[in-house]
Amino acid sequence: MAYTLVTRRLLPGSLDPLSHYELKVNDSDRPLSHDQLLEQVQGANALICLPGDLVDAEVIEAGTTLSVIATVSVGFDHIDLSAASRSGIPVCHTPDVLDEATADLAFGLIIAAARRMGEAERDLRSLSWQGWAVDQYLGLELNGATLGIVGFGRIGKAVARRALGFGMQVIHHSRHPSGEAGYFPDLDQMLSISDVVSLHVPLTEETRHLIDARRLALMKDTAVLVNTSRGAVVDEEALADALTEGRIFAAGIDVYEQEPSVHPKLLSAPRAVLLPHIGSATTATRTAMASRAVADVKAVLEGRRPIYLLNPEVFAGGGS
Ligand code: DGY
Questions:
Q1: Ligand 1: which residue has its CA nearest to atom 1?
Q2: 65-90 per-position pLDDT tens digit
Q3: Less CB within 10 Å around the terminal CB: N or C of the chain?
Q4: Rounded distance between C-alpha atoms, residue 251 and residue 140, angstroms
Q5: How confident is the model at residue 29 (pLDDT cuts 50, 70, 90)?
Q6: Domain CATH number, residue 293
Q7: Distance from the alpha carbon of residue 316 to the mean position of ligand 1, in angstroms
Q8: Are 79 and 49 a contacting pair, CB within 8 Å?
Q9: Helix or strand run (H / E) with residue 31
């Protein structure tokens, strides 16, 4: 009997709407290997996956009985969307519901990196703090500083709202003119005048290493870079070099090029606050994300059109 394959443990109750369907859940919470995914997708009529599951053309071609793929994430760079479309498989994701949680985390990283909280806490825990001193852990004052937001979608805008509350000047760059005050058509120019840069673009071929050695060199040596989007938007090694050589002041990073690995140079770079991809990690948000993915899978299994569909062309020609 065909089943819905769920590649990782979800929060309790998330799969309840699918209780009348056959489920095969990897409850171990260790990601399936690519070989396991290839094997288990055979015979599945739906796939619920997460970032970190590589749903490439090989997996999609092995899933000959698949009628839907839903990722419990807004980002879908781990799924070969073209291969899914070629096979006529709808792919769904979970936009909107994680905007505020991710913006909170991005802003947390802005503060933590600007105020050197990571190194200060490490020193305190390792008992190397010698007591208060006037020139200790001096950081960047956010009030009056300029925040350059790269990617002005929902999450970028949510970060902008927070920044205004902190007295920051907010400017932004996006691929298409936003029509809003503070828009910079030229990314390089925006980078060169920003005190803090926060990245909110999806990972695509155009945005891979968008922040590379050349662009890092354009930034002020007092600047802070924050990345909560996708690791590969930044050249991790170039960032580590820029931090080590003092060419930028600090960084706050939640996402990495080869998760769960982190570039060793970044691990030892000064003034880097490093978090393990927890942008959307609140109970409310993770519950809402799963609920969105599960509802879309249920819709397809019941012959309805899913809501958060990434490749609507698979329904062209009269799908319900
Ligand atoms: C997403 O939804 O793409 C996030 O990175 C997961 O937290």
A1: 73
A2: 999 999 999 999 999 999 999 999 99
A3: N
A4: 12
A5: confident
A6: 3.40.50.720
A7: 28
A8: yes
A9: none
